[in-house]
Design goal:
The complex is a heterodimer of chains A (112) and B (112). Chain A contains no helices and eleven strands. By secondary structure, chain A is mostly beta strands. Classes of the chains: A mainly beta (112), B mainly beta (112). Chains A and B meet through strand 4, strand 5, strand 9 and strand 10 of A and strand 4, strand 5 and strand 10 of B.
Chain lengths: 112, 112
């Protein structure tokens, strides 16, 4: 059981480049989330999706877009990367309880 | 004792002692309060949750206490072990929003 899988694990971008972070879960969860975590800090919610076909802004959505491609997949796109977006990005999903979120291993993104 | 580091407060506890990690929350509309544990290099992992209409819930070696009057949440870990070394986050969930918002973390350091 893979759980939540994120790709890539590491990425270096130049300022202004674009990229998409991929996330897939195999637990048939309705809710999926994208968080960012800066060094020594907590997690901040970027976007979330309560169900297939819906997405909503979280605490820090500026500079990002998301797509809930189907029930399994939830991608995060940076259209024009900035150094302030250097962070570790976590994807998560939650099932019926709504409180037990399962997290991926994270994507460490550096924008230079 | 407890001290404030550069970003995260740190709690140092002797192995075998009980640990108490505290969290203050601000959103009175939250339906659930949740504790997560994050080990170095990994995504957060669910520990326990408590519904807003409860004031205490127990799990394996952990107890969560909720005081709505002062908007305070605590996680008690009994007989702290080396494997408990991690950063602990409290989080909130509002049912109508279906999103999980994380609070500030506390680094738990176990002394031998």
């Amino acid at each position: 059981n893979a759980g939540v899988t994120q790709t890539p694990k590491f990425q270096v971008l130049k300022t202004g480049q674009s990229m998409t972070l991929q996330c897939a879960q195999d637990m048939n969860h309705n809710s999926m989330y994208w968080y960012r975590q800066d060094p020594g800090m907590g997690l901040r919610l970027i976007y979330y999706s309560a169900s297939e076909g819906t997405t909503d802004k979280g605490e820090v959505p500026n500079g990002y877009n998301v797509s809930r491609l189907n029930k399994r997949e939830f991608s995060l796109r940076l259209e024009s990367a900035a150094p302030s977006q250097t962070s570790v990005y976590f994807c998560a999903s939650s099932g019926p309880s709504g409180t037990e979120a399962f997290f991926g291993q994270g994507t460490r993104l550096t924008v230079v | 004792g407890e001290s404030v580091g550069l970003h995260l407060p740190t709690l140092s506890v002797q192995e075998g002692d009980n640990s108490i990690i505290n969290c203050a929350y601000s959103n009175s509309a939250s339906d659930y309060f949740i504790w997560y544990k994050q080990e170095s290099g990994k995504g957060p992992q669910f520990i326990i949750d408590i519904r807003s209409n409860m004031d205490k819930r127990q799990g394996q070696r952990v107890t969560v206490l909720l005081n709505k009057t002062v908007k305070h949440l605590s996680l008690q870990i009994a007989a702290t072990q080396p494997g408990d070394s991690a950063v602990y986050f409290c989080a909130e969930r509002v049912n109508r929003d279906d999103k999980i918002i994380f609070g500030k973390g506390t680094r738990l350091h176990i002394l031998p």
